């Protein structure tokens, strides 16, 4: 692989690393590392390690981050992955979550913005650690990537997110001085991706480095407006050069004297087990000029649910349901008042937990409701082991044998939710969305592995 690396890139790295350059160069002779982050909303680290049969070792970046020390084929098909027990994440990328932990602000309700959020590694990683009365707005400009982001938020059961599909400038206009914490995992030249995805090597150029830096500086110019006085801004990239990292931060701080640098960290593949990352934390002064919005105009008219049919449905599914519930159009949502306040003032494509949809003369529960980590107890549940034939049949989209009683059943694997089934006409009819029926897809094309969400 070394012979494929651009000469300009190697010259830059030699100048940056000095005596460490040779060790860095030799890291390219090693295979890329794969990692996973255990979803602590679903389970404890200890329990997952007991259940998992894979060889894992700690990343030493975050407590729930691990390196996969063996080749695991089709890991995206595993029921634990489908059930949101873990998220595939490159080990170095977990450093952003570690940086948030170091701020020591997770012990209180927060408003958080992830401005460049897809596929969701940072949004879900931080979202797992937020209190239930916190809100995280996850924004992604590209709609197809925003859909992938929603899929991961749903799979991991995050209940307090709002997903937007806007330009950064538009986000700043909706949310001036609004957030306690803003994350910018900026688009970059991807030098830290070379070992994992060699195709990126051929896309690299000095011109791309410079154009990436211009985009990063523009994004930061909008991100800063969203931070409250006293709030934090975290910037990260998966690239190594100083132009996109220290250069971008220096330029930002020179222009914005109301921000101060708190920390700045680099991760290289020859010094840490990972592909490499840059992460920097800044704080906005308490005395910074505050630009409160005019009284936010409600774009989305969420109303509190008053009809008994919805609550009767929830009581049929859960034994202890007591969530706030709202309706918008034909959709019923579980959400905190704070989340609804945020979701009301911005065009969004996902908010809270979509619990039910009005269809003709009935309310139909959703897959999202059964995947959400809301903590309520299900009246009816069928739990299977990972290798059971019933589980394989369900994931393929087939019906299950009738159960003793009850209309709605959570289907799970070792306690991790996969979806639900509805009892009717002597069968449990499969309600798993067709796009998630993985084994049918696997059997049609054994040569192609399911793409794994990694960041």
General form: globular
CATH class of the largest domain: Alpha Beta
Strand order of the largest sheet: 10-11-9-8-5-6-7-15
CATH fold call of the largest domain: Rossmann fold
Oligomerization: single chain
Helix content: 25-40%
- Poorly predicted runs: 445-453
Our count of domains comes out at 3
Number of strands: 22
The residue-averaged pLDDT reads 94
Describe this structure in words.
The chain contains 16 helices and 22 strands. It has 455 residues and is an alpha+beta fold. The protein folds into three domains: 2-284, Rossmann fold (3-Layer(aba) Sandwich); 294-377; 378-445, Archaeosine Trna-guanine Transglycosylase, Chain: A, domain 4 (Roll). The protein has an eight-stranded mixed beta sheet, sandwiched between helices. A five-stranded antiparallel beta sheet has the order 12-13-14-16-17. Strands 18-20-21-22-19 form a five-stranded mixed beta sheet. Strand 20 and strand 21 form a beta hairpin. Helix 8 packs parallel to helix 10 (206-226) and helix 10 (206-226) crosses helix 11.
Summarize the structure.
With about 450 residues, this protein is of the alpha+beta class. The protein contains 16 helices and 22 strands. The protein has 3 domains: about 280 residues, 3-Layer(aba) Sandwich (Rossmann fold), CATH 3.40.50; about 80 residues; about 70 residues, Archaeosine Trna-guanine Transglycosylase, Chain: A, domain 4, CATH 2.30.130.
